[in-house]
Specification:
Blueprint: E1 3-8, H1 13-20, H2 22-27, H3 30-36, E2 43-52, E3 59-66, H4 71-76, H5 79-96, E4 101-103, H6 106-109, H7 115-120, E5 125-126, H8 129-146, E6 155-159, H9 164-173, E7 179-183, H10 187-199, E8 205-209, E9 220-223, E10 242-245, H11 254-259, E11 264-267, E12 270-272, E13 289-291, H12 292-303, H13 317-330, E14 333-334, E15 338-339, E16 342-343, H14 346-359
Parallel strand pairs: 1-3, 1-4, 4-5, 6-7, 6-9, 7-8, 9-10, 10-11
Antiparallel strand pairs: 2-3, 12-13, 12-14, 15-16
Helix pairs in contact: 8-9, 8-12, 8-13, 12-13
The chain binds NADP nicotinamide-adenine-dinucleotide phosphate (NAP).
The site of NADP nicotinamide-adenine-dinucleotide phosphate (NAP) has 31 residues, from helix 6, helix 8, helix 9 and helix 12.
């Protein structure tokens, strides 16, 4: 049987450690986790079974394994030490017999986005970012539709536009919307991206901004920074707008959910997996759903493509389109909307539209 492994890591350390070790999660403090977890070995989490292609009937099995570092470690520890820990976790995947390895959350963000890790391992590696982009764009299109925002005349913004995922999402959106604002922290990188889009005659008028205040103009926002803390706050947002949050940890502050009932915030990157999948581990999603980056790893295993796939910070549209076609063929689909870990119902969407209408 063909196989895969996928690396995850704690995002909210105390909560996520409790998912595997309930007792330990209760007694250790955040400070102890921060101090000790880099000395922890990689952790075997579970065997994943039941993933079955809807077109070929092929079934694969996989393993979830954890790199014992939390977001702060990925930012603060020396890069070489972080690479060593991820590579050690990759060796666990090899011992289990995985034929392809996916890198989740910050393990795909660090340094050169998988290139050094892939060079150090025998098993082929993918960050899963190409399918993450495809699903994020599909989610924005769908959310625009349910909120009655005609995408062709919409004003959109991408936050974290110069990052690996943000850059290529900007590239896709620039061909669909009327106006696109690239939001980031550094003017030169933003202007270079703007120049590229203008030179290739993208459809949208392209603006740049280093201020989150620019979001007040946007009807559609895709946010995908690697910030440790929320960057999108209630005061940044226009009534009736859509925010698709692809980042993990989240970019959208919980205050937006509490204070802005006139905004549709959706979690980007959730996918329905084909077949009676059982992860045998609760990573925070409802049964049968996976992150898009996990789904890319699974789709490649179903396709028998055991080769390095998405690596590095410069993603290509061709690879995004190719993995979207592969995933589609095997039955992966954009999942229904969720917001702050809860499903979004049609009634809630109707209420958001009503509240937005009143406020406008
Ligand atoms: N949902 C999924 O399935 C999925 C899959 C893969 C990745 N992700 C998530 O996607 C996010 C981005 O990944 P990536 O690979 O694109 O990362 P990346 O290449 O490192 O890009 C991140 C971008 O965020 C910006 N940024 C970092 N800290 C910031 C802050 N405090 N305020 C504003 N901007 C900030 C960076 O700007 P500078 O250039 O100024 O540093 C950079 O442009 C991560 O949260 C990752 O976990 C989600």
């Amino acid at each position: 049987m063909d196989t895969f492994a996928f690396i995850i890591h704690p995002i909210h350390p105390k909560r996520d450690i409790s998912r595997k070790y309930p007792l330990l999660g209760r007694i250790v403090t955040d400070w102890q986790i921060r101090l000790l977890s880099p000395y922890f070995p990689p952790v075997y989490l579970s065997e994943v079974e039941g993933i079955t292609s809807t077109s070929t009937g092929k079934t694969i099995k996989g393993w979830l394994i954890a790199c014992p570092l939390s977001p702060i470690h990925f930012i603060e520890l020396p890069e070489k030490r972080v690479y060593r820990k991820i590579i050690e976790t990759g060796h666990l995947a090899e011992k289990l017999g995985a034929k392809i390895l996916g890198l989740g959350a910050y393990t795909s963000v660090v340094g050169d986005a998988g290139i050094t890790i892939a060079q150090a391992l025998d098993v082929p590696v993918t960050t899963g970012d190409s399918y993450t982009v495809s699903i994020a764009i599909q989610a924005v299109r769908k959310a625009a539709e349910v909120m009655d925002i005609p995408i062709g005349s919409a004003r959109a913004a991408v936050v974290g536009a110069t990052g690996a995922i943000g850059r290529i999402c900007s590239d896709f959106l620039a061909d669909e919307v009327a106006e696109l604002c690239l939001v980031g922290r550094h003017d030169p990188a933003l202007n270079e991206l703007r120049q590229n889009l203008v030179e290739r005659h993208a459809r949208a008028e392209i603006k740049v901004s280093t201020s989150m205040d620019a979001l007040r103009e946007a009807q559609l926002i895709l946010t995908v920074t690697s910030a440790l803390h929320a960057v999108v706050e209630p005061e940044h947002l226009l009534p009736g707008s859509v925010v698709c949050d692809v980042a993990r940890p989240r970019d959208v502050s919980a205050r937006v959910a509490a204070r802005r009932d006139d905004i549709l915030v959706i979690d980007g990157g959730m996918v329905e997996v084909p077949g009676p999948v059982d992860f045998h581990f609760d990573f925070g999603f409802p049964p049968g759903k996976a992150y898009a980056c996990m789904a890319e790893t699974m789709a490649l295993a179903l396709e028998g493509r055991f080769e390095d796939y998405t690596l590095g910070k410069r993603l290509t549209r061709a690879q995004v389109d190719e993995i979207a076609a592969i995933a589609d063929r095997h039955g992966f689909r954009l999942s229904g909307f969720r917001s702050f870990e809860r499903p979004v119902t049609e009634e809630q969407i109707a209420q958001v539209r009503q509240k937005a209408h009143k406020r406008i």
